[in-house]
Amino acid sequence: MYMKTKIFILFAFFHLTIFAQESKMSNVEIENFKKDIITDSKKIQTLTADFTQYKVMSFLDKPIVSKGKLYLQNPKAMRWNYTQPIDYNVIFNNGKIYINDEGKKSSVDLQGNKKFEKLNQLIVGSVSGNLFDTNDFIITFAKTDKSRIAKLQPKLKDVKKYIKEIQLTFYSGQSTVTEVKLIEPSDDYTKILFTNKSLNKTINASVFNP
């Protein structure tokens, strides 16, 4: 009985991503998709959103779930404000990562952490319109009835050590990313879902201070 229950829970959790019927975009659809992102992104200066993050690892029975709020100042400043299960802030600004782990502060140069650097670039790019202006990834496109998906596979060896593929999902009618899936070489992955998105609302500059 326990095994049947566990299988049912896993089926329910992955239903949207595994069983959604994906198909390839046509060349016309790809060009229209890019045009939509670029056109709408030019109007965006700030983005705030709630997020739920699922960390899925093969040796764990269930995902590690974290929640918080994202603040983005187009085109370079970003803050991940984790509130559950612990207070944890990560700020991307001025080419560095600033971390506040329950009062313990540290900083890391972005050039020294390719995984965070690329994730930062891609999410900012999804808003700024520079998402597809890169030679660092092989990009393919797919669609479902309710979404459009860009799948990016890194070309650089240093990045391949940490990232197998990044999937960015845009819900129909939206030009900002709603789901980010970061797949590691081991096939463990992190999935982030964005909700309650708000565009072009003033964000206090202090939000991005370390």
UniProtKB/TrEMBL annotation:
Keywords: Lipoprotein, Signal. Residues 1-20 form the signal peptide. It comes from Empedobacter falsenii. Gene3D superfamilies: Lipoprotein localisation LolA/LolB/LppX (2.50.20.10). PANTHER family: OUTER-MEMBRANE LIPOPROTEIN CARRIER PROTEIN. This is Outer membrane lipoprotein carrier protein LolA. The lineage of its organism: Bacteria, Pseudomonadati, Bacteroidota, Flavobacteriia, Flavobacteriales.
